[in-house]
Amino acid sequence: MATEAPESTSNGHNDAEEPQEAPASPPLPEKHTAVTPGPRATRMQELFASSLRHTLGKISWENVAACYPTIAATRPEMLRDLRGQMVERLGMLCHVSSSLVLLRRSMFLWRVWRDCVGWRERA
Q1: Domains of the chain, residue spans
Q2: 2-52, pLDDT tens digit by residue?
Q3: Separation between Cα atoms, residue 80 and residue 73, nearest integer Å
Q4: CA 45 from centroid of its chain's CA atoms
Q5: Tens digits of residue pLDDT in 67-77
């Protein structure tokens, strides 16, 4: 006598098997709250913003027009727009670059602190 195997469906699972429950998902982490910078970090950010404004202010219309006299004479509105876009783009790139430098330094300091106190990640 041969025993009959339970019929399988088209997806290869047996109908006789009970469906398995999915494991419970872990609880969601707490919402991350932004940390406000301390007085030194705030002052450094203010100093950087002030220095950047001063530096980008040197790219005045007169300086740009002196570099491109033909365009300044024939199409001044186009050169003014170009100057504004250039100053805006340079400001944005400077902010991004400075943020990356600060992030790298903070990660370096974190690694140094971690190594000093002997903290190790769990594998």
Answers
A1: 40-116
A2: 555 555 555 555 555 556 676 777 776 676 665 677 788 788 889 999 999
A3: 12
A4: 17
A5: 999 999 999 99
Report the distance separating Cα 65 and Cα 83, nearest Å: 9
Alpha carbons 59 and 13: distance in angstroms, whole number: 71
How far apart, in whole angstroms, are the C-alpha atoms of residue 106 and residue 38? 14
Length of the chain: 123
Question: Amino acid identity, residue 118?
Answer: G
CA distances from 120 to 106, 112, 114, 115, 116 (A): 18, 12, 7, 8, 10
* pTM greater than 0.85 (yes/no): no
Residues 6 or more apart in contact with residue 8 via CB below 8 angstroms: 14, 15
